């Protein structure tokens, strides 16, 4: 199969979908790999390193899309890429369709095969291609939150861990999944008082066992959320429903119950966000203020640490990408239930229920396209 890796063009997205080691694996399996020039430079990988591994460097993004049977990316295509996508071309990347109606309609129109990292799902319901970036984003959420709590950045002027004789900050984490767990661990490690909320009692029991003493677990419901936000200095939104929009746990009216200078970090913003007032921002302009509350809503947080993120992501995606290349997407998805669940849009049809429900569009059962 012919594999194409374009340079990411989303604002300040420095990750790349394939490392030179990944190129070598594709070559070992008999595939051809084309890399757009400078695609890996933001992550520390030169064109020469890719060529040495066996890739061919192409000068433009247009050339990569034109020649490739499978496009491997990190982030969803943006508007300028839509016209480059060909019918029956396989795109393997993060899509987050439930947060963009425009992207959904564009991929339906292009009749591409859209296999989304974020909905590839194991039998135990874990999301293997979301986990590495969730780990990075959860840890980064605390780094960024701590920074924006500083007074010059618009925050309350609070040090997360406090000092002798001065209480530490209160951190509220909404969601006890991968993102929330990593965020709570980081905040606790810095000495903050942490409260983590979830709707699953078994998950809360697990977190109670593994978290340090400065982390409290609380059942998530509207009453408890409203009470907790009054005390919080930093609030992390870490709620995910695979392939669907995140629910709004914090609504606009709740902002008035928070202390001025409180910082909100919505890690779920690329799935619509779990904080009603959050809209996607970029690393260039990461924050905005509503009702004296600082909102940090960067949709590609791991893009700020591309070396770590690229290696973590490609470690997870490469085995699946090799299967797709070796067998073709149809056979690979028939034989691998995990990959089958990654299919979101196929030849103009939505085959993932969460996407069809998000935009009230017709749903086609996956069995109809994998006959």
TrEMBL record:
<keyword id="KW-0520">NAD</keyword>
<dbReference type="InterPro" id="IPR007886">
    <property type="entry name" value="AlaDH/PNT_N"/>
</dbReference>
<protein>
    <recommendedName>
        <fullName>Alanine dehydrogenase</fullName>
        <ecNumber>1.4.1.1</ecNumber>
    </recommendedName>
</protein>
<dbReference type="GO" id="GO:0000286">
    <property type="term" value="F:alanine dehydrogenase activity"/>
</dbReference>
<keyword id="KW-0560">Oxidoreductase</keyword>
<dbReference type="Pfam" id="PF01262">
    <property type="entry name" value="AlaDh_PNT_C"/>
</dbReference>
<feature type="domain" description="Alanine dehydrogenase/pyridine nucleotide transhydrogenase NAD(H)-binding">
    <location>
        <begin position="149"/>
        <end position="297"/>
    </location>
</feature>
<dbReference type="InterPro" id="IPR036291">
    <property type="entry name" value="NAD(P)-bd_dom_sf"/>
</dbReference>
<dbReference type="Pfam" id="PF05222">
    <property type="entry name" value="AlaDh_PNT_N"/>
</dbReference>
<dbReference type="InterPro" id="IPR007698">
    <property type="entry name" value="AlaDH/PNT_NAD(H)-bd"/>
</dbReference>
<comment type="similarity">
    <text>Belongs to the AlaDH/PNT family.</text>
</comment>
<dbReference type="InterPro" id="IPR008141">
    <property type="entry name" value="Ala_DH"/>
</dbReference>
<dbReference type="InterPro" id="IPR008143">
    <property type="entry name" value="Ala_DH/PNT_CS2"/>
</dbReference>
<feature type="domain" description="Alanine dehydrogenase/pyridine nucleotide transhydrogenase N-terminal">
    <location>
        <begin position="4"/>
        <end position="137"/>
    </location>
</feature>
């Amino acid at each position: 199969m012919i594999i194409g890796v374009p340079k990411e063009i989303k604002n300040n997205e420095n990750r790349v979908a394939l490392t030179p080691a990944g190129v070598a694996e594709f070559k070992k399996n008999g595939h051809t790999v084309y890399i757009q020039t400078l695609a890996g430079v933001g992550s520390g990988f030169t064109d020469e390193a890719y060529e040495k591994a066996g890739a061919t460097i192409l000068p433009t993004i247009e050339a990569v899309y034109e020649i490739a049977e499978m496009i491997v990316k990190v982030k969803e295509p943006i508007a300028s890429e839509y016209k480059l996508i060909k019918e029956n071309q396989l795109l393997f990347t993060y899509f987050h369709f439930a947060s963009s109606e425009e992207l959904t309609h564009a991929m339906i129109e292009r009749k591409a095969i859209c296999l989304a990292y974020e909905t590839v799902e194991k039998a135990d319901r874990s999301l293997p291609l979301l986990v590495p970036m969730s780990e990075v984003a959860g840890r980064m959420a605390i780094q960024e939150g701590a920074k924006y709590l500083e007074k010059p950045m618009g925050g309350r002027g609070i040090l997360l861990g406090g000092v002798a004789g001065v209480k530490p900050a209160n951190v509220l984490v909404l969601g006890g999944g991968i993102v929330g767990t990593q965020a709570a661990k980081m905040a606790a490690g810095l000495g903050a008082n942490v409260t983590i909320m979830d709707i699953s009692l078994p998950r809360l029991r697990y977190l109670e066992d593994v978290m340090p003493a400065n982390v409290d677990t609380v059942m998530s419901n509207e009453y408890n959320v409203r009470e907790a936000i009054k005390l919080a200095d930093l609030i992390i939104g870490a709620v995910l429903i695979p392939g669907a929009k995140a629910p709004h746990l914090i609504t606009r009216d709740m902002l008035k119950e928070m202390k001025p200078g409180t910082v909100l970090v919505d890690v779920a913003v690329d799935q619509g966000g779990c904080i009603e007032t959050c809209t996607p921002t970029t690393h260039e302009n990461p924050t905005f203020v509503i009702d004296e509350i600082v909102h940090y809503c960067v949709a590609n947080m791991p893009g700020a640490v591309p070396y770590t993120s690229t290696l973590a992501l490609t470690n997870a995606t490469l085995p699946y990408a090799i299967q797709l290349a070796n067998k073709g997407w149809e056979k690979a998805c028939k034989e691998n239930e995990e990959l089958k669940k990654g299919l979101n849009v196929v030849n103009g049809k939505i085959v993932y229920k969460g996407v069809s429900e998000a935009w009230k569009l017709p749903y086609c059962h996956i069995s109809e396209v994998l006959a």
